[in-house]
Amino acid sequence: MMPAARESLLDAAYTALVRRPWSAVRMVDVAAAAGVSRQTLYNEFGSKDGLARALVRREADGYLAGVDRALAGQGDPRDRLAATAEWTTSAARENALVRAMLTGCWCERLPAPPLSAVSSTSAAPAQRRADGPLPSPGDFVTLVRDRAVKVLAGPGTTKSDTADLARSCELAVRLALSCVAAPAGEGGVAGLVGTALRRPAG
């Protein structure tokens, strides 16, 4: 199947999920909305569980792509960590699947595929990847922290400086996640991150 058709099916599944609980989303309706046969949908994803895993994997990838954009932006490292924190809170606010992945709180409306890998018989590389392990909240902290360190550590950064940077990056991510659960007040998450990263460790 062409990647564009797979994306159309995932778009249709996401749109259906916004409108109704996952338990009420029907494969035949997803296929019809994407303009393909139900058999094509099953050929691509294997089952409704396979579709759920693929949808969760796509939303995880989309969140991490946004992290990369924020880290590649303008400003000093603190500005870019603040932008990453802002992206995290806005993505979680706007996308229930991202919120569930980042917090581990899967409500009854959402699919909740197991995070461990499932056996895959799919010929589609994208589905084999989706059938692999899905990131936990702790995995996201590590993924974002490591991406931030890779982007923000300049040439000649010492091992000690890299360790300090990793702690700052992890602090920014964890502050953002706390603001997903309990929204920040005046100054928002960027203000919290800026304040926290200005303070000397001690």
Give a description of the structure.
The chain has helices at 3-19, 27-34, 38-45, 48-71, 77-94, 96-103, 125-130, 137-152, 159-181, 188-198. The mean pLDDT is 91. The protein is mostly helical. The radius of gyration is 19 Å and the shape is elongated.
Shape: elongated
What percent of residues are in strands? under 5%
Number of helices: 10
Low-confidence stretches: none
Helix content: 55-70%
- Average of pLDDT: 91
Order of helices and strands: HHHHHHHHHH
- Number of extended strands: 0
**What is the distance, rounded to the nearest whole angstrom, between the alpha carbons of the first and last residues?**
55 Å
How would a textbook summarize the main sheet? none
Output the radius of gyration: 19 Å
Descriptors:
202 residues; mainly alpha; 10 helices; 69% helix; 0% strand
Quick structural overview:
With 202 residues, the protein is mostly helical. The chain contains ten helices and no strands. 35% of the residues are buried.
List the helices and strands and how they pair.
Elements: H1 3-19, H2 27-34, H3 38-45, H4 48-71, H5 77-94, H6 96-103, H7 125-130, H8 137-152, H9 159-181, H10 188-198
